[in-house]
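Bench notes, afternoon.
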Amino acid sequence: MKKNHASALLSMTVILGVVAAGCSKAENTASPSASVAPSTGATQTAKPVEADKKYKVSFYNTVGYRLTTPMPAKEQDPIRQMIEKDNNMDLDMIMGGENWKDKLNLLISSNQIPDIVSFPDRASAIKYYDQGLLADLDDLLKEFPELPKAFDPSRLEPMKYKGHTIGLPASEAVGGVNGWWINNTWLKKLNLSVPTNPQELLNVMKAFTFNDPDGNGKNDTYGYVAMLPKDGSLGYSTSGAQGFQQIFWMYGVQPNFVDVKDGKVVVYNTDAKTKEALTFIKEMIDAKVVDPDWVTIDDGLKRDNKMYQGKVGIMIEDWRRSEPAETKKMQDAGGSVPDWKQIAPPKGPYGDQILDVKPFQQSLIGLSKEAMKDAGKAKRAMQFIQYLYTNKDAYPFLAYGIKDKSFTATNGTPKLIDRSTYNEKEIEWRYNYAFVRKATDGVYFDFQKPDITNANQKINTSYLKDNNVNPRVFDDPADPMSQDRLKYANEMMLKFVTGKEPLTNWDTYVKTLQDKFKLNDAIANYTKQLQGDGVIK
């Protein structure tokens, strides 16, 4: 992301994830505390029309990070006091929570439509836009030209729908969280080099499995670990990195992934390179270098435990695994802390060196059509949004909380206060303002070894594939074949790698997808959706 993103005090934004970056500096002219909330003196926000008039602005928040935590009264919320003073407004922030759609529908039906509405995913935003809730922002944004500049163009592009800007990027997802990790202690002991291609990778996996790399005289180690998520997919899914995903990317393909090549939609489930990747995965499994527990590892925690136990030499893991909290888990579970290090993805036979795809901007924040009925209120609401994403003085309070309670600032450089020194539950609500944080804010993520962790993230982000398609496309709800098609593809992939179905039947599998499960109809649907969004002509 660009460093000037949101002109914010520090770079940041998250989602389930984590990121790294250097610590940006910022002068904190405001010092909100539990009882006092002086203004930040926000001189960087454009002065709104009718600046002397105070507006009450309601904000339906579905992108905060503690949505089930009740917000305190204004007297106990110095961040809200700061926001209201700097923007000459009364802020009514309504938390969405797990049942956010039901709550939003209730507000709409009772004619209490919020002025500002955020959505955790683009598909939901589009649905409510089509139903008449969200307003087009193109004309209003002409009066706030600095606001779009706060976001990387790749994040702004998904905010367009049917040729209109229906929102602005809300929370910034972290990219390149999971990368290739290798046990460097084992590499050195067995006098091996870091693998750079599939054959070298397999050779190292075999050595890690059969050459007693931990020196205990037992045949109890494995070269690789993967997982099989609950949806049964070996490839692209909502479950995150799985191990085998990265093997497919080594061949430049990904099952269940929709892509655009040469202006045409492609689905890699039938690509010949997918067959090659499946052949390599089967070779790994047949060589017994993959921890056999992979078929029962269906969540990230179970996969993490394999790293902590120290019996696997190569795996796909979170970039924070060198942080003290993680190495302690390794010490506790495995009795030692191996010299784990991140490496670049091995380069595939066609020159592909892909770790994953860049995050697609899902969440967005926009204005309701109801708010647009009052031009002054609409401008004040937009001023507030611009303040959230561009005001350098406000940023540390929005992202880090309460000065001298949850963070300090020395010579303009912020630092989080150790959470064990105060009752964080008392101010957990502060995270509902933190969605503005940048995905590269090491202060927010509180890295204890920022040099190592930031370097890991740099490696990962160097090998991310552009992605402006997934999850933009979706199966037609009226398509009776969609779920059966996905289930069939997942089952066949699993059968191919485990030998229950010979790969000589690949052509039969492809023909079944196309004929029985109407794959070409799905591709036509995807093409129509992407044409409507202007991604392809």
